[in-house]
Amino acid sequence: MKRNQISLLALTALLAAPACADDAALREQAKGLFEVIPMQAPQLADNNAVTRDKIDLGAKLFFDPRMSKSGVFSCQSCHNVGMGGVDGLETSIGHGWQKGPRNAPTALNAVFNIAQFWDGRAPDLAAQAKGPVQAGVEMNNTADNLVATVKSMPGYVEAFAKAFPGQSDPVSFDNFALAVEAFEATLITPNSKFDQWLTGSDSAMSEDEKAGLKLFIDTGCASCHNGINIGGNGYYPFGVVEAPGAEILPAGDTGRFKVTKTASDEYVFRAGPLRNIALTAPYFHSGKVWDLKEAVSVMANSQLGAKLEDKQLDQIVAFLGTLTGEQPEVMHPILPARTTETPKPVQMN
Amino acid sequence: MKRNQISLLALTALLAAPACADDAALREQAKGLFEVIPMQAPQLADNNAVTRDKIDLGAKLFFDPRMSKSGVFSCQSCHNVGMGGVDGLETSIGHGWQKGPRNAPTALNAVFNIAQFWDGRAPDLAAQAKGPVQAGVEMNNTADNLVATVKSMPGYVEAFAKAFPGQSDPVSFDNFALAVEAFEATLITPNSKFDQWLTGSDSAMSEDEKAGLKLFIDTGCASCHNGINIGGNGYYPFGVVEAPGAEILPAGDTGRFKVTKTASDEYVFRAGPLRNIALTAPYFHSGKVWDLKEAVSVMANSQLGAKLEDKQLDQIVAFLGTLTGEQPEVMHPILPARTTETPKPVQMN
């Protein structure tokens, strides 16, 4: 009995042996395409210094529903730090129960994207933070009302003064955005199985997961989905080979064309960042596909003209599962108390 | 100069001296009426054992918007742990942007109330937790759909099995409610200035705050607002002496009458618990009063027929401010990932 067990172990070791050689070659290839998520939040251009005070203020603002006109929605409503940085809806529900036009992108690791939003219209997270707050279908607030709200609460006034020392009027819409950016930049998810493997731990990924990675590279997925976020760093037409159905790619949303007004940007979108993709269903800017396997199949067909076998799809999905990192541990902030000066929430338009 | 300072100190000491004697008498009186919030969550009847596993599961469920039909609202939406346990709205906004009938009561220290809801229709927090989840104007879910949602996610199935060991079918609506209750029972706010003073620290409250406490007792507020939550432990008619205007006390909401069908319970409500009241505007079951001073004035007039002077109102408000305790530190939970079996959110009715 014991002898049998040893033989089995030896056999397993033999079977595993070729994988080690494969690992080295595959890792070399992968290192040319992808990057590991760092353990610490990165430095931010145009937002120095990212102090603990600024991050703490940003957390308060991120979680505060009083930043919306109705008092119902905060950044956290659509970018839930406990749900992979998304809301799990096709497209977000906003002011007056309106349905937003596109699926909410994850806030996790968003700091590593080339730009923000599906069409990249915001160059950084600070610019992004100003969008949903003012969008009529989202938080429906105005910059003035947001600043008045914040200024009415001594707890916020003090926090802004600490986060932006030496400024004569620290409570401003620009500083709101910088504080939110500072907090969001901490929402990174290191130590995924993929990152552990990429940095040398052969056993961090299963054989199926490695086969999926190889397929992901060989089929061509990695030509758009690469870099630190396995996507999020370039713009590509949706439907290179064959446009998916109007359900998935609605004709009315021309993507980056709306930003650049350039004909070649019609139906062009930022390649979706695939970090934590197993947590962020539903998929695509339309949010119409709920099953990751189906999303991979749609992509293979429409972008690469590839018909993958069922097992291959499973292996790619298994690989994508290794992109789930350690989720951020966020203490829910205690928000400053309102005063009689604080603008009241308004639910009607 | 130094001599003057010493004289001033001596004078201050003299002036303060009578306050010490007063403190002892006032404290003795207060101890007969009020109780200190304990440092630890209390034991729960009918919910044994309250283990760390059960509390952690309850936190997940409390923060999970997928417990609502729309995927938009969680318990946290209306009982925000960072905003004094409320949503800061007149009445809560729920499914389809419907406006709820009454102001959301705080979840903080709610475990100490005699019963839950403004009319006390739920005997405990577990019974309470089942209400908003199924209410059409709130989360609009069904028990079956909630259980199907939870059962579709292995992360939840494991967490229920750990929280309810030895049960053959641990994922149930009853256990959902027990787990939420276990978490909510941890949301207590000890160490308020009032509690520090009540346990012997004369300097924890200012002279104005102590004067406010004395007024609170002498005017008669404490005849309804007493016990550990300074309220929340008995039922009283709103408008004992003079009914407030229909704006504050809408004619259609007959309060506890709806529960007991007893004529004498018309417009009877549970006395509002006043812990952390400075954080939980707007006030009353109608949520129509935003200013705590105005709320105190309305109460004095309608319940006690007392016309308090402006300074007296300020002192009572100052006392009420001492009821703000240490707010709960809650790590935002990481929620289990949905699967292809998870029911999709439905925003329409």
From TrEMBL, chains A, B:
The answer to whether keyword rRNA-binding applies is: no
Q: How is the cofactor bound?
A: Binds 2 heme groups.
Entry superkingdom: Bacteria
Q: Hey, what's the signal peptide range on this chain?
A: 1-21
> For this UniProt entry, what's an example GO CC term?
periplasmic space
Q: How is it modified after translation?
A: Binds 2 heme groups per subunit.
The question of whether Repressor is a record keyword is answered with: no
Per UniProt, heme c 1 binds at: 75, 78-79, 95
What is the predominant subcellular site recorded for this chain? periplasm
**Gene3D superfamilies associated with the record:** Cytochrome c-like domain
GO MF, one term, reads:
electron transfer activity
Instruction: Identify the InterPro entries for this entry.
Output: Cyt_c-like_dom, Cyt_c-like_dom_sf, Cytochrome_c_Peroxidase/MauG, Di-haem_cyt_c_peroxidsae, MauG/Cytc_peroxidase
Which cofactors are required for activity?
heme
- What's one Pfam family here? CCP_MauG
Q: Which residues bind heme c 2?
A: 221, 224-225, 299
Q: Which UniProt keywords are present, listed alphabetically?
A: Heme, Iron, Metal-binding, Oxidoreductase, Periplasm, Peroxidase, Signal
Q: What is this protein called?
A: Cytochrome c peroxidase
Its source organism is: Rhodobacter viridis
